[in-house]
From TrEMBL:
It comes from Oriolus oriolus. The gene is Sdf2. This is SDF2 factor. PROSITE patterns: MIR. The keyword Repeat applies. It comes from the Eukaryota.
Length: 138
C-alpha cells in the first residue's frame, strides 16, 4: 500500500492506484527523487527504507488499461511525486554486479517503461473482488 496505508494480501490492484513496491529480500522500497542516475543521466531510482517503511517518495501509480492490473498484461509505474516512469534502457554497471542494468525514471513514456510480471507468487483474489468481478445482476 501507499504511505500510511495497508494493503491486504490478495487485494486486487486498481489501475491508477498508488502503491509501494518492496523488495522481499531487503525490505526496502523502490524509491526515486530528483537526482541524476549515474549511467543514463535520467532520474535515479534506488532502494529506501526499512521493513517496508519509507516515505512519500516510495509511492508509484499503476498505469494500466482496464479496471485492475491483470497478470500477463503490460503495466507502467509512474512516480507519484516527480511523474517519471520506471524505466530500463540498457545501460549496464560493471560493479558491483557485472551486467546489472540501470533502472531509472524517464520523463516521457516509451517502450522502455512497460513492465510485465514474469514470475512471483500468485495470490487468489479476495472474496470481495470475486463477487464484484463476476456479479451478473443488472
Amino acid at each position: 500500500g501507499r504511505t500510511a496505508a495497508v494493503c491486504q494480501r490478495g487485494t486486487p490492484v486498481r489501475c491508477g492506484q498508488a502503491i509501494r513496491l518492496t523488495h522481499l529480500g531487503t525490505g526496502r522500497n523502490l524509491h526515486s527523487h530528483r537526482f541524476t542516475s549515474p549511467l543514463s543521466g535520467n532520474q535515479e531510482v534506488s532502494a529506501f527504507g526499512e521493513a517496508g517503511e519509507g516515505d512519500y517518495l516510495d509511492d508509484w501509480t499503476v498505469v494500466c488499461s482496464g479496471t485492475y492490473w491483470v497478470r500477463d498484461d503490460e503495466v507502467r509505474f509512474q512516480h507519484t511525486s516527480t511523474d517519471v516512469f520506471l524505466s530500463v534502457t540498457g545501460e549496464q554497471y560493471g560493479r558491483p554486479i557485472h551486467g546489472q542494468k540501470e533502472v531509472h525514471g524517464m520523463a516521457t513514456s516509451s517502450q522502455n517503461n512497460y513492465w510485465k510480471v514474469m514470475e512471483g507468487i500468485f495470490m487468489q483474489p479476495s472474496e470481495a473482488f470475486q463477487t464484484e468481478q463476476y456479479h451478473a445482476e443488472l
